[in-house]
Amino acid sequence: MANCSNCSAPLPPDSIRCDYCGSRNDIDLKEVNYHTTHESESQRICPRCDIRMETIDLKIDGRFLIERCEQCLGLFFDPNELEALMQATVSNVFTINRSRLDSINAAVRADDYGITYIKCPVCTKLMNRVNFGAKSGVIVNRCRDHGVWLDGGELRHLFEWMKAGGKILDQERQEQRKKAEAEQERERVHASAGSGRDTGHPGFDSYGGPLSSEDPDLFAIVQSAIRFFTGKKD
Ligand SMILES: [Zn+2]
Ligand SMILES: [Zn+2]
Ligand SMILES: [Zn+2]
């Protein structure tokens, strides 16, 4: 558990704000070496605080620039950068730890901002709120053209999610989804060919099976994850 860098009280799980002294703790980039760069003054404005952000270089495969707000500790990533950072930081995860995935999300506290729509730091259009991935518990603000905003603490949460196998779960669900779609398409073609009585071998393709009902908005989550990871436009 992390401790407050100001008063060293233990931080509440999954929060960057200390309950005792109220200060925000910069915990997102703890596992990443980075350098503040002043060579290019960022023109980008923090959508939470309305001040200029700083550009920092994470030095992954050479230069890897992202923007950070010094005040609220929010981060802005260009398209696909967040994915690349997570890939570079968390590796060797081969199994899904479902109870861990449930418990890290149970610990999430409501953030300081509530449900608000904020402006893209580049084009100032309001960003979309999209689920990051299956059971991630993080709703990110995303501009389809310019990238993704994470509030302070959310990056660390996504690292934890990925370590618990969240990414694998996500991929698994996307595959199930594709399989179910292919199955539906087969049935449609089959039915339109006029031989609807032959239903094939029920159970043979049970892997695809009926999708789990535990997530009623699974479709939306998967769709947004696909859009997010492929950067595909609607
Ligand atoms: Zn404190
Ligand atoms: Zn800010
Ligand atoms: Zn934008």
Structure description:
The chain is of the alpha+beta class. It has five helices and seven strands, in the order E-E-E-E-H-H-E-E-E-H-H-H. Mean pLDDT is 81; it is low at 198-216. Residues 4, 6-7, 9, 18, 20-21, 23 line the site of one zinc ion. One zinc ion is lined by residues 120, 122-123, 125, 143, 145-146.
Describe the SSE topology.
Blueprint: E1 35-37, E2 54-57, E3 65-68, E4 75-77, H1 81-89, H2 98-106, E5 128-131, E6 139-143, E7 147-150, H3 154-163, H4 166-192, H5 218-230
Antiparallel strand pairs: 1-2, 2-3, 3-4, 4-7, 5-6, 6-7
Helix pairs in contact: 4-5
Q: Strand pairing plus helix content: what structural class? A: alpha+beta
Radius of gyration: 21 Å
Low-pLDDT stretches are: 198-216
Tally of helical segments: 5
User: Helical amount among residues, as a percent range?
Assistant: 25-40%
What is the terminal-to-terminal distance? 40 Å
Number of strands: 7
Q: Note the overall shape.
A: globular
Strand content: 5-15%
Bound molecules: zinc ion
> For the residues shown, what is the average pLDDT?
81
How do the strands of the widest beta sheet line up side by side?
1-2-3-4-7-6-5
Tell me about the largest β-sheet: 7 strands, antiparallel
Order of helices and strands: EEEEHHEEEHHH
